[in-house]
Amino acid sequence: MDIARENTALLVVDMQNGFIEDKGSMAKVGLPHEELRPAVPGCRTLIDAARAAGVPVIFTRYTFQPGYVDGGLLPNYIVPAMKEVGSLAAGTWDAEIVDELAPAEGEIVIDKSRPSSFYGTRLEPVLTGLDVRSLVICGVTTNICVETTARDAGQRDYFTHVISDATAEFDKARHEHALTGIGFLFGWINTVDDVVNAWS
Question: From the candidates 83, 145, 152, 165, which is the catalytic residue?
Answer without folding.
Answer: 145
